[in-house]
Inverse folding.
C-alpha cells in the first residue's frame, strides 16, 4: 500500500464532527477537484474507499441539491446533479474562495483537508519529505497557500505543466499538516520514519568515525614498526637507553594494541609511550634520511 493510500484511509476514518467544518471540507473537495465534473456530470475515483467517503460527505452537505449515485463500472464514478448543485451553490465554479462558511477555528483546517482530498499527494517518508496539492487555477493556488501559511505551515508554490503546485517540505511541516487535517496516525508514521533515519545516520557517522580512527592508528603503528626495524638493522637499537628499547619491544610484540593500551602495559600514559615511539622515529630518520 502506498503512503498516500494509508494517509487517505487515516483521513477517511476520522470524519469531522461539526456541520460548519464538514461544509468547508466538502466545498474545497469540490472546488479543487482536477476532473471537469461541471461538464462531465460526475467525479471519477480510483478506489472504493474514496468514492464512499465522497458520497457520504456530499450527501451530508448537498443532500437536497445533489443526487449522488455510484456508476456502473465498479463504482468508480459518482454522478452529480450539476444543474441543481450549481443553482444552489454557484460559487463552486468560481476561483475565489468564499469564506462566509468559515465559522469556527477548525474551518480553515477542514477546508485544507478538503483540498488535500481533491488534489493532494504525499511521498513515502522513507524516501523523501514532500507533500503537494496540484491546483488548476493560479488564484486558487495562492488562496490555498495563504490559508496554509496562516496556520503556520511553510507552504510554497511552484508551476509545473500548466498547474500550480502548493507544496511542503521538511518532516515537521508535513507532520503539522497531517495532524491539523486529522491524519494523526500518518503523522506518527512520519515521526517514526524520521527517528529511524536519524538513528541510522548517527550509527553510520559513528562507524565512519571509528573506521577512520582505526586507519589512523594502524598507519601510526606501521610508522613505528618501520622505524624500529631500521634501528634494529643498523645496530642502533641495541645501543639506546632501556626505556626506548622496552618501548620498541612492546610495540613489536603487541601491534594490535592502541597507544593507550600499550602505555598501560608499561605503566605509562598515552603521551609517555607516544614520546618514546616518536623518539625512535626521529632516530631512525637520522639513520635513513629521506
Ligand atoms: Zn467549523
Amino acid at each position: 500500500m502506498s503512503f498516500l493510500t494509508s494517509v487517505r484511509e487515516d483521513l477517511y476514518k476520522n470524519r469531522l464532527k461539526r456541520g460548519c467544518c464538514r461544509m468547508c471540507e466538502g466545498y474545497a473537495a469540490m472546488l479543487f477537484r482536477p476532473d471537469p465534473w461541471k461538464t462531465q456530470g460526475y467525479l471519477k475515483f480510483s478506489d472504493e474507499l474514496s468514492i464512499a467517503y465522497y458520497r457520504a460527505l456530499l450527501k451530508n452537505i448537498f443532500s437536497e441539491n445533489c443526487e449522488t449515485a455510484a456508476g456502473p463500472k465498479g463504482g468508480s464514478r459518482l454522478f452529480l446533479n450539476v444543474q441543481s448543485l450549481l443553482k444552489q451553490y454557484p460559487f463552486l465554479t468560481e476561483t475565489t474562495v468564499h469564506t462566509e462558511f468559515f465559522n469556527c477555528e477548525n474551518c480553515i483546517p477542514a477546508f485544507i483537508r478538503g483540498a488535500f482530498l481533491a488534489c493532494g499527494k504525499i511521498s513515502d517518508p522513507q524516501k523523501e519529505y514532500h507533500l503537494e496539492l496540484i491546483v488548476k487555477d493560479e488564484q486558487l493556488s495562492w488562496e490555498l497557500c495563504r490559508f496554509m501559511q496562516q496556520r503556520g505551515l511553510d507552504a510554497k508554490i511552484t508551476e509545473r505543466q500548466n498547474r500550480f503546485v502548493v507544496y511542503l517540505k521538511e518532516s515537521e511541516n508535513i507532520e503539522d499538516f497531517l495532524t491539523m487535517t486529522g491524519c494523526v496516525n500518518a503523522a506518527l508514521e512520519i515521526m517514526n520514519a524520521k527517528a529511524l533515519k536519524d538513528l541510522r545516520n548517527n550509527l553510520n557517522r559513528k562507524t565512519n568515525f571509528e573506521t577512520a580512527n582505526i586507519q589512523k592508528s594502524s598507519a601510526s603503528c606501521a610508522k613505528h614498526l618501520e622505524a624500529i626495524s631500521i634501528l634494529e638493522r643498523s645496530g642502533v637499537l641495541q645501543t639506546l637507553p632501556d626505556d626506548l628499547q622496552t618501548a620498541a619491544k612492546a610495540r613489536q610484540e603487541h601491534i594490535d594494541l592502541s597507544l593507550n593500551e600499550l602505555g598501560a602495559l608499561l605503566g605509562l600514559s598515552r603521551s609517555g609511550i607516544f614520546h618514546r615511539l616518536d623518539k625512535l622515529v626521529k632516530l631512525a630518520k637520522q639513520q635513513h634520511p629521506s
Remarks:
- The pocket of zinc ion is lined by residues 18, 20-21, 103-104, 106-107, 110 (CB under 6 Å).
